[in-house]
Amino acid sequence: MNELPDKHHVRGGYDGWRSGTAMAALLFCGIALSACQTGPTGELTTIDVAQGSSENISSLSAVVQRNPSDPEAYNVRGSAYGRGGKYRDALKDFDTAIRLRPDFYQAYSNRALIHRFLGDQASALADYNRSIQINPSYDAAYIGRGNLYRKAGRTQDAFNDFQKAIQLDTTDPRAYHNRGLIYQSQGQHNYAIEDFSTAISLSPDSEEPYNGRGLSYLATNDEDNAFADFNMAIKLNERVAESWANQALIYERRGDKARAAKSYARAAQLDPNYKVATDGLARTRT
């Protein structure tokens, strides 16, 4: 079944909190990492431009026209609309898919994500619950609902849903990454490192778990491994401000203000509103 991946922003992969550089900066200033909190940001790492392109939508619309009673056709096109940021069109297609097949649990989960993007958290929760009620073994719905819970501050409920997805032998890296973020926020960095490592093994081309693991390495004073992870994050994606700020933090800890300032400057260039980067640049600029 075609599913809409739980992502739509360039930053904040795996529906994660901002990579956590704010926590690292506080750690650098002498505040315990476990006491720090970050706020949720984007749900996704990248927009799938190809699948949301007008050409692909046109092709999928032709399939819908040939099969107007096929719920799968609407689910597939709805997923493409969602990937392309056309949320209202996606919502209509998932509505139609569910009307045609009331037990279409994948469409419920996909529609829940669209509700979240549109700010209707109550409808999103209802759809995730319905998806799980129809298929209690559907890992994607647990991960999506877990992200919804975490955004609402229901950390234990979020943890339980990520745990359930993992118990179902999910191969979705978001379950491990997001559980790792919860462990990290609670100061359980060895568990966090293990989860981030699993996420990396499942999705080795994403920078986000490298940033997460690097911060937990840093919290356990494993500076060398932290630095290696931040450098890998930059290698994988040079346009993520958090990665550059994390690298800058290591340089700053080592007393190399020139290199730190250069990395903070790159982070600030990528995101002028990223306070960690601008504050770091002010500290290290000579």
TrEMBL record:
Gene3D superfamilies: Tetratricopeptide repeat domain. InterPro entries: TPR-like_helical_dom_sf, TPR_2, TPR_rpt, Ycf3. Coiled coil: none annotated. It comes from the Bacteria. Keywords: Repeat, TPR repeat. TPR repeats lie at residues 71-104, 105-138, 139-172, 173-206, 207-240, 241-274. This is Tetratricopeptide repeat protein. It comes from Borborobacter arsenicus.
